[in-house]
Design goal:
Strand content: under 5%
Order of helices and strands: HH
Number of domains: 1
Keywords: Membrane, Transmembrane, Transmembrane helix
Radius of gyration: 21 Å
Distance between the termini: 49 Å
Helix content: over 70%
Largest sheet: none
Transmembrane segments: 20-42, 54-75
Structural class: mainly alpha
Number of strands: 0
C-alpha cells in the first residue's frame, strides 16, 4: 500500500499539479485577452461577441481547474492519502509566535 501511495503522490505532484496550473494559466490569459480586447473595442462602438466569449470561457476554465484541485484534495482527505510536498493545514495549530512578537 505504501508503494501505491508513493506512486500516486508522485503522479499528482509531477503530472496532475503542473497540468492544472498550465490550464489555469491558459484560462487566466484567455480571460485577460478577452478583457483587453473588450475594452479596446468598447471605444470603437459595439464590443464583439468573441471578446465576451473569451472572458466567459476564461472564467469557466479557471473555475473548472480550481474545482479539480478541490476534488483532488477532497479525495486525498477522504481516503487518507497524504502528500509529501502538499500543504498541511493541520500543522498550523503547532505554530507558536516567537517571544516578543506582540510586544510581550
Amino acid at each position: 500500500m505504501q508503494a501505491i501511495s508513493g506512486l500516486l503522490d508522485r503522479f499528482v505532484t509531477y503530472i496532475i499539479d503542473p497540468a492544472i496550473l498550465l490550464v489555469f494559466t491558459a484560462g487566466f490569459f484567455l480571460f485577460m485577452w478577452g478583457l483587453v480586447m473588450f475594452m479596446i473595442h468598447l471605444n470603437s462602438g459595439e464590443p464583439k461577441q468573441e471578446d465576451k466569449d473569451h472572458i466567459l470561457w476564461g472564467l469557466v476554465g479557471m473555475l473548472v481547474m480550481v474545482a479539480v484541485w478541490g476534488i483532488i484534495g477532497l479525495l486525498e482527505n477522504t481516503f487518507g492519502i497524504g502528500r509529501v510536498g502538499g500543504f498541511d493545514i493541520g500543522r498550523i495549530e503547532n505554530v507558536a509566535p516567537p517571544p516578543n512578537f506582540f510586544g510581550n
